[in-house]
Every structure is written in C-alpha cells, then in structure tokens.
Amino acid sequence: MDNRIVSRLTDLLGEDRVLTKPEDLLVYGYDATPMMHETPGCVLFPDSTEQIGAILRLANAERIAVVTRGSGTGLSGGSIPVPHCIVVCTVRMDRILEIDRANLTARVQPGVLTAKLDEAAKACGLFYPPDPGSIKISTIGGNVANNSGGLRGLKYGVTRDYVMALEVVLASGDILRTGTACMKDVAGYNLKDLFVSSQGTLGVITEILLRLVPKPASKRTLLATFPSIQAAAETVSSIIAEPIVPCTLEFLDRMTISCVEDYAHIGLPLDCEALLLMETDGHPLVTEEEARAMERIAREHGALQVQIAKDDFEAERLASARRSASPALARVAPTTILEDATVPRNRLAEMVTFIQKTAEKYQIRIGTFGHMGDGNLHPTFLTDERNTDEIHRVEQGFAEIFEKAIALGGTITGEHGVGLAKKRFLPALIGQVGLNVHREVKRAFDPNMILNPGKIFD
Q1: What topology is assigned to 333-425 in CATH?
Q2: For residue 456, is it left (φ>0), alpha (ψ between -120 and 50) or beta?
Q3: DSSP reduced 3-state for 45
Q4: pLDDT for residue 1
Q5: pLDDT (tens digit, 9 = 90+) per residue, 434-444?
Q6: pTM over cut 0.90
C-alpha cells in the first residue's frame, strides 16, 4: 500500500486502527472458504459511519479497491481481499443501539454478533429468528450482506425478511438511508433489498433496523430416523401438506449421521439412511398437537425411530445432532468444502440421490445435510487440497451438482452467496440479460468499481 495513502488513513483513524505489517495482514486474507487467500494492502477498523465515509471518499478518488469484512465466516469467498486493497473491518462497530418493544424493532451496528442480538431480544421477551450456523461468531452486517438463512428459515424466513431499514455508505462516501420503521412503506424503489445479499459490492452497511417478533411460548423437538432418503423426503412433503409449518425441518444423510455420532456421541442409530430433526414452536397446545402429528406422519412413512424431547435439555441434545454436522464432517479430512445447492422441496430426494451418485462417479466423499423444509441442501466435500487430482474431481463433482440444481428449477446458492466461489455458475442461472442488469446496477452505485471488485460477477 502506498505510504501516502497509509499516512492519510492513519491520520483519519489513528495508528492502532490501521494494520500494514505482513504478519498482521495474513489472517485477513482468509474467510471460511477453503483454498482461497489474498493478502490485502491494509486493514482498517473504523468505529463510525463518518469514518467509513471518509475512507470511501479517499479510496474512490484514488481508485483503490475496498473489501468490507465482518467476522470472516463467509463460505463463498465474499470477503476475500483483492491485491493491494483496503479491507474495512466493521467488528468495532458492535453496539446494539436500541431495542424498541413498542415497535418490535432493533437498531444495530453491523459488527453486532448475531447471538448477541438474539440474547438481547430474548431478555426483552422478543425473538430474532434468523439463526445461521455461525450464529455465535457471525455479524449482523455479514448476515445482511449475504442474506443469511438458518435452521428456522422454513417458518420464519431469512435475514431479508427482517431488514426494515439500512444506513449505507456509497462508493462516493455519500450516506444513503433507505427503508423506515413502518410495516408498510412503498415510497419509491425498494433500494433496501438491493443491498441485502449484495456482498459489499454496492455499499458499506453501517446501521441496520431489524424486525423482531414475540418470543414463542413453547417448543417441541423431535428426531426421526428413516430407512431411505425417499421416506424422509415424503415425510417432509406430508408434514407441509398437513398443513404444518415447523420452525425447523432438518436433514442428515448416512455419512453425516456417522460423523456426528463419532464426534458428539449423541446416541444416534447408525443403521439408517436419513435423519430428520423437527421442531415446532408457538402456543403450548398447538406445539403439542403438531408434535404428535409429525410423529404420526413420520411413522406412517416408515420411520425406524422417533424421539420426542421431554424437556429443554433433551431438546438441545437432539438439536445438537444437526448443529454438529459441519464440525463433525470437518474432522474427517484436511479440507472441507461446504456448498449450498437449493431445489424445490418436491425435488429433494432426486437431488440427494444425484449427489450420492456424483460422489460414486468421481470417487469422492460427500456428506449431505441441510434445511429439507425449504429445499436448501449442504453437500459437503471431504477432501485434501494438497491432492491436486482429487481436487480436480471435486470441482467436476460440484459443477455437476450445480448444473443439476438449476435443471431441477433450483439455484446455486440458498444462503451462502455467490462471492468468488460460485460466480462462474451465475450466468447459467440468470442468463445474459440478467447478468447485464446486474452489471448496470453495479455501475450505477459504484461507477469506479472499487467496492469488492470481482465478486458475484466479473
């Protein structure tokens, strides 16, 4: 990084908030995406919207790329730096500014941890539903930038469904405020939603107004095992058709079940092909009725075993089977590539079967788990990045999986984002016209192309 630029940034932020030494920069060259790294020119830790505005005005004038970063938990390479760029790390902007019980909203800075907001809402008798797998360490700003989902997405939706208003610093350094605290607001274009899932390519989010909901009075948790993936998928379809909308309807395949049991020692049976974690919440009478109905439906579709949690402790133990999936699989091989192909619910069994056949075809290991209730699967490739031949086969495998997802009417990412990892698959999904529109939107907000360049599309 040019010493002149570093000096100006240091004058703006202070020496303790500007990193330039190679050993300090190294860690900020990664996020949670495997096999991707690039050393930035410097890393900054602003603590106000005004400071970010000044940084972007300087970067825009000097044509220096800016990559925004939270906790670095992204799985698509969205916060991987580009060479000689400025990384703006928002972790010091970590205040919950207000929880408004009268309007059921929370106003937060982007560096607030998702779990911290969840705890603060619960302390007020409220509830923030989005719960990504990285809930304990991911930031709200990152959740918004990637439109994060989670285990409760079937009933409660994803991050976009809770974003009411944003404060965003544009590439020019100007501050845009879009959205309001009103439940109804159709004044002008819905610019707010453009920034949700934009992965820092259109602006830097500096403040978020989020919708909260009343905390559910009760919850019931069930865990069912099945002799086949088809039986588990048919159970899901029948539950939705009942109609019951569980807050959680999660799936693990045989390989994932085996890895979870070896890792967490929960007591899962290893003689099944699929497992469903099912949770219902709401009024106690309703949750009891829905839990019994889901148990009945699972047994009607050949469930080998159905457990209903007797208390909160046992519910947490059953839920840990699903929440342990990613770390359990990560122990199996040196490199874990976690993807998120998503298909319509009625194509889930076909998609999971295709994933298994792809693993056999390329002689690679894939453990699959995910949100069966909303069609979001996480095929997880267990490999070793030092084995170039195997990595080549892995890349062929997930290319075919994305092609199949698109052919089934699905998408290449349900919640991780496109980033660097999947941008080559985006044209097949949205077509040339869609790609042109994306580029025009980018050009309108960032004419000098300084914000997270090379992400989502070239």
Answers
A1: Alpha-Beta Plaits (3.30.70)
A2: left
A3: coil
A4: 83
A5: 999 999 999 99
A6: yes
